[in-house]
């Protein structure tokens, strides 16, 4: 059995869904961004078909795979793809780690530090 190494070109990011009513974390997802065509991690038949058939009209494709974990709706893998517009420029404009910028997201203020 051989293993292929798979690295997302634009890096990684994550999202957290928090209930505004309770403050509980309802879901987290870890995203690997900008996979080259045909160089995806093991994703199963349905997601492979999605990447094979979903068109992208962007100048530069953004193929992302995310592993999502939640207490109510379970764990799953999802796929996302740029399709119309210029998603890469939008992400780079956010000036975050996954846009490969030299700066980072601003740290939230800590209580009592006077910010």
UniProtKB/TrEMBL annotation:
<dbReference type="InterPro" id="IPR036239">
    <property type="entry name" value="PrenylTrfase-like_sf"/>
</dbReference>
<dbReference type="Pfam" id="PF11468">
    <property type="entry name" value="PTase_Orf2"/>
</dbReference>
<protein>
    <submittedName>
        <fullName>Aromatic prenyltransferase</fullName>
    </submittedName>
</protein>
<dbReference type="InterPro" id="IPR020965">
    <property type="entry name" value="Prenyltransferase_CloQ"/>
</dbReference>
